[in-house]
């Protein structure tokens, strides 16, 4: 009976995430509704981004300067030009803001970008699976139930404005949330020869025009 009472008292947070806009440049919206009151606590969503999607650290820094988004990115140095097959996973800690009409509700959005994929055979799209984030709490002045929350191994501050490390907590019973799917357009492998031929033809034509203009108008 004690076990059942503890499980009943530990309500898992409700997590929803949505990819807004279309194309390669999207906004990732994360919403969290806590199962218990966490007044005075910092709430964050920790998510692992697969190689097919990334957050631009320069864009993120600009948004944080204007207080539009608060997040910590690991690693903070990212090759934004790398294709999907040469990239690696990223870890994003997104700080959530409380909603005005719901004391247990928090939300935040961050721009994400899809990477180019290898040409595929027989299909014009690839799928990037974005797993549901893990909800974290950092409570400096509040006490969390030991039956529901446990210390999390997260080496990050309580906010993006603070450099001091903080003790984050996560739910002991991680809920099974559904992830999101991002559809990315890809080229067809059977078009490789045609694309290479047109690229060489266009490059040669442009080079010839530049050389002709240089010979006609240039001073040597």
UniProtKB/TrEMBL annotation:
GO cellular component entries: endoplasmic reticulum membrane
Keyword DNA-binding assigned: no
Broad class of where this protein is predominantly found: endoplasmic reticulum
Residue stretches in coiled coil: none
SMART domains with a match to the protein in the record: PIG-X
Pathway as given in its UniProt record: Glycolipid biosynthesis; glycosylphosphatidylinositol-anchor biosynthesis
KW Zinc (keyword) present: no
Location relative to the cell: Endoplasmic reticulum membrane
Record membrane topology: Single-pass membrane protein
Keywords for the protein's UniProt record, in alphabetical order: Endoplasmic reticulum, Glycoprotein, GPI-anchor biosynthesis, Membrane, Transmembrane, Transmembrane helix
BP GO terms, sorted: GPI anchor biosynthetic process
UniProt similarity note: Belongs to the PIGX family.
Function as written in the Swiss-Prot or TrEMBL entry: Stabilizing subunit of the glycosylphosphatidylinositol-mannosyltransferase I complex which catalyzes the transfer of the first mannose, via an alpha-1,4 bond from a dolichol-phosphate-mannose (Dol-P-Man) to the glucosaminyl acyl phosphatidylinositol (GlcN-(acyl)PI) intermediate to generate alpha-D-Man-(1->4)-alpha-D-GlcN-(1->6)-(1-radyl,2-acyl-sn-glycero-3-phospho)-2-acyl-inositol and participates in the sixth step of the glycosylphosphatidylinositol-anchor biosynthesis. Probably acts by stabilizing the mannosyltransferase PIGM.
Official protein name in the record: Phosphatidylinositol-glycan biosynthesis class X protein
Organism encoding this protein: Rhadina sibilatrix
Organism phylogeny: Eukaryota, Metazoa, Chordata, Craniata, Vertebrata
């Amino acid at each position: 009976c004690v076990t059942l009472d503890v499980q009943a008292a530990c309500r898992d947070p409700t997590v929803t995430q949505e990819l807004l806009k279309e194309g390669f440049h999207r906004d990732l919206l994360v919403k969290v509704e806590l199962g218990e009151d966490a007044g005075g606590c910092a709430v964050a969503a920790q998510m692992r981004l697969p190689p097919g999607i990334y957050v631009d650290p320069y864009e993120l820094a600009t948004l944080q300067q204007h207080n539009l988004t608060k997040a910590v990115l690991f690693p903070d140095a990212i090759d934004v030009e790398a294709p999907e097959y040469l990239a690696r996973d990223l870890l994003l800690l997104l700080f959530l803001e409380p909603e005005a009409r719901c004391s247990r509700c928090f939300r935040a959005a961050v721009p994400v970008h899809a990477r180019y994929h290898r040409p595929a055979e027989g299909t014009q799209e690839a799928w990037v699976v974005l797993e549901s984030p893990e909800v974290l709490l950092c409570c400096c002045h509040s006490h969390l139930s030991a039956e529901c929350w446990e210390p999390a191994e997260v080496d990050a501050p309580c906010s993006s404005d603070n450099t001091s490390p903080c003790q984050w907590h996560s739910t002991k019973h991680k809920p099974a949330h559904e992830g999101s799917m991002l559809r990315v357009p890809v080229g067809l492998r059977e078009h490789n020869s045609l694309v290479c031929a047109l690229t060489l033809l266009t490059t040669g034509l442009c080079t010839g025009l530049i050389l002709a203009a240089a010979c006609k108008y240039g001073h040597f």
